Amino acid sequence: MLEVRGLRKVYGGHGRTVEAVRDLTFELKAGELACLVGPSGCGKTTLLKCIAGLLAPTSGEVSVHGQRVAGPPADMAVVFQEYGRSLYPWMTVGANVELPLKEKRLVRARRRQLVTDSLAAVGLHDVENAYPWQLSGGMQQRVAIARALAYEPQVLLMDEPFAAVDAQTRADLEDLVRSVWQRFGITLLFVTHDIDEAVYLGERVIVLSASPTVVQHQVTVDLPTERDQLATRSLARFAELRAEIYQQIHQAKAASTADRLAAEALA
Amino acid sequence: MSGPTSVSTGRASPVTLSQPAALQSGTAAHQRRRHLPLGLFGLIGLLLVLELVPRIGLVSPAYLSPTSEIVKTLAGEVGRPSFWIAVWDTVRSWAIGLIIAVIAGTVVGLILGSVGFLRRLTSSLIEFLRPIPSVSLVPLAVLLYGNDIRSKLLLIVYAAFWQVLIQVMYGAHDVDPVAADTARSFRLGRLALLRHVTWPTVLPYFMTGVRLAASVALILAVTGELVIGAPGLGKEIAIAQSSAAIPLVYAYVVTTGLLGVLVNLGARAVERRVLSWHPSVRGEVAA
Ligand SMILES: Nc1ncnc2c1ncn2[C@@H]1O[C@H](COP(=O)(O)OP(=O)(O)OP(=O)(O)O)[C@@H](O)[C@H]1O
Ligand SMILES: [Mg+2]
After folding, report:
1. DSSP code of B22?
2. A15 CB near a chain B CB, below 8 Å?
3. Pocket flag, ligand 1, residue A161 (CB < 6 Å)
4. What per-residue confidence (pLDDT) applies to B276?
5. What is the ipTM metric for this complex?
6. pTM above 0.90, yes or no
7. Fewer CB atoms inside 10 A, N or C side of chain A?
8. Distance CA A172, CA A112 (A)
C-alpha cells in the first residue's frame, strides 16, 4: 500500500551538495506499523518528506495505494519532529486541530466531534481553548498527534515524535501510538533513532544505514500484539531483537567507515 | 529582557536590506508604564523651564513663547472652527495616505516576501528607491498636482509605503518552514495558507510597519503643508510665522505633537489587542 522504490535525494545549492538518501526500497502493507531506525543525519526526515509529497525525490518514486506521489496525498497525515513549530501559536488547540478539517470541508458538527474525540483519544481534556504555548512539551506533542488523528488518515507518518519528552511521558505516548494504531487500523510509519522504541512499537523494523543511506536490514518483530512497557521489554525475544538491530547498525557504521577509508586510500 | 526584541526566528535572510525595527518587548512596555510618573516629572520640568527661559530674558520672547502663553493661545484656537478645519485637513490626508501606503505595501510585500525569485530581482531596486527622502519629491509633486491634496498624498504615500513594505516582506519571508510544511501536508490551499499561516506570521511585522508608517505619514503631511502650502496644520504654522504670531506658531506645533502622540498610542493599543498570542505581548500578562 505504501511503496518506496529506488528513492534517492540529493540536496543541492548554496555551494554544496548533500546526498541525503542514496537508494531506498521498501514497502508497507495496509494496516502495518513499521518503525524506521537509523543514525542521526542519515536522511530519515528527508525520506518522510518525500513520502509525504513535500519534497520531490531526485530519482526513484513513492506510491500510495498504487498511485505515484506527486504532492501531499489526500489520506495521509504527518506528525513532524519539531512539533512546537508545527502547531500554530496564534490559534487555540481546538482551532489547530480543526483547521485541516475545515479544509476537508467537513460540516461543523462533524468537525467539533472529531476535535473532541481525537483530543480525548490522546488523553487531553479541557485544553481546547488553551493556546499551544500554554501547554507542556508532552501535551503539545499529543495535540500534534490529535490533529493528525482527527484528519482520519489511512497513512500516518511520525518523525521522531518523542525525542524531546521525558521517559515517563515517552512510555505513555508509545502506548498511545500502539492503541491508536490498533483502534483506527491505520498504516503507520514511525521514525526513531531509538532501537528500544522501534522494537517495542513496531511490527517490523527497517534499519537504515549511515549516510550514504540504503536499507541495511529489515526485522520482523515477532512479539505479542498486546505490549506492555514492563513485560514486553523484559522478554528474552525483545533483548534478542534489540541485539540483532544493534549489531546491524554497528556493522553499517563499520562498513561505511571502511568504505570511506578505502576511498581515501584510492584517492 | 529589555529594549526591542526581534520577532524573527533568526534565520539568515538573503536580502541585504537593513533589519526591520522589531516589536517592543512586553517587559519594556511594562517598565515604561511603571516609570510614567517619573517621565511626567520630566515633562513638567521641561514645561517649567520653557516658561521661565523667555520670562527671565535668556531667550527673546520673539523666538520662544512662555508655556502659559502657548497654552492660552491654543485654548483660544480650539474654540475656532478654522483650527478644526486645519486639523481635519491634516488628519484626512494622513489617513488617506496611510491607508493607500498600507494596502500597497502589504500586497507588494506579501508577494515579494513569499516569492524568492521576485525578492532577489527587486532587492537592489528597493535599496535604491527607499533611501530617497520623500521631501525631495516636492518639486515633482508640485509639478504634477500644484498645492492640491494629491501633492501631499504623494509625499505621504512614498514615505509610508517603504515602512510597510519592508516589514511585510520580512514577515512573509519569516514563515516557519515546519509550519508551512504542516499546512501543505494537510493540503491547505494557497488562500488558506495565506490566511492561516502567512498572514499571522506577518502580523507582528505588519503592526510594526503600520506604527512606523503612521508616524512618518504625519511628519510628511505637516511637511507637505509647510513646504507646498497645501491646507492643514503645516500651512497654519507657515501663515502664523509670516504674520509673526509666535505663540500661535507654537500652539500649532504643539497640536501636531499631540497628534503624533495620539497616533502612536492608538497604534500600540491596536498592536496589543491583535497580537495577544505573540511572545512579545503575552509576556506582559505574566509580568
Ligand atoms: N534542506 C536541506 N538542504 C540541504 N541539506 C539538507 C537539508 N535537509 C537535510 N539536509 C541534509 O540531509 C541529511 C539528512 O538530513 P535529515 O534531516 O533527513 O536527517 P535525519 O535522519 O532526519 O536526522 P535526525 O535523526 O537528526 O533528525 C543531512 O546530512 C542534512 O545535512
Ligand atoms: Mg529528522
Report:
1. P
2. no
3. no
4. 82
5. 0.87
6. no
7. C
8. 26
Q: How far is CA A142 from CA A50, A266, B40, in A?
A: 24, 51, 50
**What residues contact residue B8 under an 8 Å CB cut-off, 6+ apart?**
B22, B170, B174
Distance CA B225, CA A236 (A): 88
Total structural domains in chain B? 1
User: Are B189 and A103 in contact (CB < 8 Å)?
Assistant: yes
pLDDT less than 50: residues of chain B: 1-29, 284-287
Q: Reply yes or no on whether the pLDDT at A36 is more than 90.
A: yes
* Nearest partner of A71 among B177, B181, B196, B114, judged by Cα: B181
Domain range for B165 is 66-286
The CA distance from A106 to A112, in Å, is 10
CATH number of the domain within which B143 lies: 1.10.3720.10
Q: Put the strands of the sheet holding A67-68 in their side by side order.
A: A18-28, A2-11, A59-64, A67-68
Q: Considering chain A, what is the average pLDDT of its residues?
A: 89
The answer for A15, left when phi > 0, alpha when psi is -120 to 50, beta otherwise, is left
Domain assignment present for B246: yes
Among A202-206, A212-216, B13-17, B62-66, the range scoring the smallest mean pLDDT is B13-17
* Residues contacting residue A114 through CB under 8 Å, at least 6 positions apart: A97, A98, A101, A106, A150, A152
Using most ligand atoms within 8 A of CB, pick from A45, A209, A214, A256 the residue to mutate for ligand 1: A45
Q: Return the pLDDT at A52.
A: 94
Residue B35 lies in a domain: no
pLDDT of B4 reads 40
Could you tell me the three cell numbers for A7? 528513492
Tell me, which fold does domain A2-75+153-259 have in CATH? Answer: Rossmann fold (3.40.50)
Q: Does some domain include residue B230?
A: yes
Q: Is A11 in the pocket of ligand 1 (CB under 6 A)?
A: yes
* pLDDT (tens digit per residue) in A103-136: 889 999 999 999 999 999 888 888 999 999 999 8
pLDDT score of B32: 53
Please indicate, yes or no, if residue B148 is contained in any of the structural domains: yes
* pLDDT given for residue B30 in this prediction: 52
Phi/psi of residue A205, each to 5°? Answer: -120, 125
Ligand 2 geometric centre to CA of A153 (Å): 22
Which pLDDT value is given to residue A180? 85
Closest CA to A193 of A182, A180, A207, A172: A207
Nearest CB to B192: which of A82, A103, A131?
A103
